[in-house]
Amino acid sequence: MKVLFITSNDFGELSLATFFARNQPFQSIFVVPKKRATYFDEVVDIKYVYSSITELERIIENEKPDVISLNTGYLIVNGGLATMEEFQLFYEYLKKLGCPIITTDPFVRVYDSYPECSFELDGNPLVSLKNEMTFLSEYLKELPHIYGFPCKSNLENAYLFYNDKYCLKEKKPQHDTEKKDHWLFVLGELDSTLLFVKHGELFIKELAERLKEICQNTENRVRCVFPENIANMLRVPLAPLKNLQILNFLTLEEFETLVSESDIVFYWNVFSNSILMCYYYDVPFLCFGKGHIADLSEDLFNHMSDGIYRSGKPEFIDFLSPLEPNLDTLLEKQYSKENRRRILDEYHRLPTPQSIVKALTND
Question: Rounded to whole angstroms, how far apart are CA atoms 217 and 181?
Fold first, then answer.
């Protein structure tokens, strides 16, 4: 059984494909954009690199997959890999192949529940994005939609999954013999840009203060994954902090290792796909802000929160206030273990990727 994954330029959707494929009993073929080829170091059966959607038919004809997964059909045009006309021609080609075609969906069919949902950035309507997503929401409606969390969907062909074989044995959380607490801060490029526009130099100042506060506790080991410009602004002034490491580029495997080794992860994006890594490795996480996806639309934020956080809301922490440097105290004040356990229990009850592939192929 062959499953061919065609990924977009979106980091999260590339990660979601690995959540579905890893350690499953089908052959995984990944077709990855050239822009993400260095980042994607997952060990898969076969990997192709592409620059344009026009290259995909040749790969499909060569591999003859049993299932084709678009990760995601909603962002191939938006990510610059095709024009809308090229994508429609490709989609018509796919429908004639006779094998199941599936797609992931970063917006979780928001228009089914919120027909008037619009997107705004700093109060400015994103008309072209709304038009594009409205069109694709209807155009791709007949495809089976795949979700890596127990979302709410009105679609009959929505498939939710949890890969109980995802965590590799050698990557399970390991704490060092010195009993240090490992803190990880994750900030994406678009979120950092928006935060810098909103707060200016205050953002860098407050970020530096939070890191200093945590590093004052010598029992802490702090690692940050920041965009290059943010990393460069912080490295010199924070150089005296010997228990701080600032990184600006990691491969998928390197990033996953950091998450799995952490005792807590902080995000500025409540819908970062790597939050699913935290669920898989049972690592607590807190959020400093909604992030670029949730900020686009309050309807989208409420709709996606219902799925990822299971009718709850993300656990926020005030970025502009001092941060408790003792991890146990911080978690006791800010983090609900009971809520996390409730969420994880629902995730663990979801079908496996293999069972979904079997259902799609009537195997």
Answer: 10
Task: Give the three-class secondary structure for 130.
Answer: helix
Strands 244-247 and 264-267: unpaired
146 - beta bridge partners? 104, 159
Give the SS3 label for residue 293. helix
User: Which residue in 27, 312, 356, 6 sits closest to 161, CA to CA?
Assistant: 356
| pLDDT tens-digit map of 46-74 | 999 999 999 999 999 999 999 999 999 99
- Distance CA(305)–CA(316), nearest Å, equals 13
Amino acid at 216: Q
Check: CB of residue 20 under 8 Å from CB of residue 146.
yes
Nearest CA-CA partner of 259 in 165, 174, 345, 163: 174
pLDDT at residue 178 tops 80: no
| Best CATH choice for the domain 169-348 from the list 1.20.1250.20, 3.40.50.2000, 3.40.50.1820, 2.60.40.10 | 3.40.50.2000
Q: Is the CATH code 3.50.30.30 the one for domain 2-166+350-361?
A: no
Q: What is the 3-state secondary structure of 217-230?
A: CCCEEEEEECCHHH
DSSP 3-state assignment of 133? Answer: helix
E strand or H helix that includes residue 334: helix 327-334
Structure letter (DSSP) for residue 316? B
Is the whole-model pTM more than 0.90?
yes
